[in-house]
Structure formats: C-alpha cells, structure tokens
Amino acid sequence: GAVVSQHPSWVICKSGTSVKIECRSLDFQATTMFWYRQFPKQSLMLMATSNEGSKATYEQGVEKDKFLINHASLTLSTLTVTSAHPEDSSFYICSARDRLAGGLETQYFGPGTRLLVL
Amino acid sequence: GEDVEQSLFLSVREGDSSVINCTYTDSSSTYLYWYKQEPGAGLQLLTYIFSNMDMKQDQRLTVLLNKKDKHLSLRIADTQTGDSAIYFCAEKGSGYGGATNKLIFGTGTLLAVQP
Asked: Which positions 55-114 of B are in contact with A (Cβ < 8 Å)?
C-alpha cells in the first residue's frame, strides 16, 4: 500500500523557537496533503489542507501565520510551527490523498511527529 | 455540523470477537472508513465501505453499515493481543450541496485484548 513518512518522529524544543516537520509520500504523488493535530485521548483535528503549488486552506481557529505550510512538490509538504509555545505540544499527523481504483479516494497517514515545547 | 461518535473503551478476551460501533450524522456520506492507531504511531487504514453497501468482509474483519440508522460497526473475529489499539471510524461526505468532503473522525475506541 501507499506509504507516507514524517520527519522527525519526535522533537523537543525551547519555547520561542520554530520547528519544521516534513511529510513525504514515498511511492505515489500526492496533490493534496492534510495536517492533523491530536491531543491526548482525543480524535484527530484537521488543521489545514495543503495543495501542491498553491496556498494551504486552514480550518477555522488555526492561525496560518503560526502554522506555516509549504507544499512545494508532489511528494513533500512541510509544516513549520513558528515561535512554538508549550501549548503547541501535541502529536502532529500528516496524510496524503491517493486515488484508488474505482474512484475511491482515501488518505494514507504518516506515523506522526510528537512535539514537546519546554 | 457533521458528527461521528464512538464509545471510548472496549475490553475483550483473546480469541473472542470484538465489535466496535460508530454512529454518524451526515446522510451524504459516500465512504466510511476504519483506521487503527497503535501506541505512538499514525493511523493505518484497515478497511472501508461504500455507502451503498451493507456489508464488507476482509479476512478477520467484517464491516456492517446500516445507512438508515447511520450506524457502522467493525467486527474483529478471533481477536488477538496484537489487535489492542485505538480504532477510529471516519466518514467522508459527498461535497455536494454544502456537505463537506473532508474526513470526519470519531473519537476513537480503545480496544483492550486480555490474554
């Protein structure tokens, strides 16, 4: 099946620094990638939809200047958490959309990046 | 708006069958999915069902869909300790008539399999 990787798998940073997370589709081209955030014991919350070559679409309540998304190629999207604060500590998961046989679209998820801001 | 609900926990003994339930509100759902999340990992697609189907079987997994009641279930036969994980159902709307075409996830059900 389709494989999506994320890097790094975890990161610890100081408050005020910026952190970049990479999401790659390894064996397929993804025109659309999604960024989710998951808090402990909660479901995934969609943060933004990233389309290759255009600006990301952010969900209501997500600050686009704080969570910078770049989707420069069909296999790579990056999420940069700028000026991170402890409340940004979370599990960030990306997914990439693939079109299966018969027109079914589904998303393949990366393993997630655990961010801890001290 | 769209809402997907699941019970938070399910505990079964190894070898028994597990049934994880999910209810949703979006009547325009086209596809419904089951994902598995193991500790510290991302989501793994287990199976999916198209909205005009009632049942889909894939090895130990059986998905039942009651579209009238907007109820989806995942049955795992002969549950093993390696099946312990959080199971998320998700629905994808048609995108027509103002309905979303994004994936909407339930809160996840933690399946605990006791030896």
From this structure: 88, 92, 102-103, 105-108
CB pairs under 8 A between A and B: 43
CB contact under 8 Å between A44 and B50, yes or no, is no
d(CA B99, CA B93): 6
Burial class from Cβ neighbours inside 10 Å (0-12, 13-18, 19+) for residue A82 reads middle
CA distance A112 to chain B (A): 5
Three-class SS state of B60:
coil
pLDDT by position in tens, chain A (length 118):
678 999 998 898 999 999 999 999 998 888 889 999 988 777 889 999 998 888 899 999 999 999 999 988 889 999 999 999 999 999 999 999 876 545 566 788 998 998 999 9
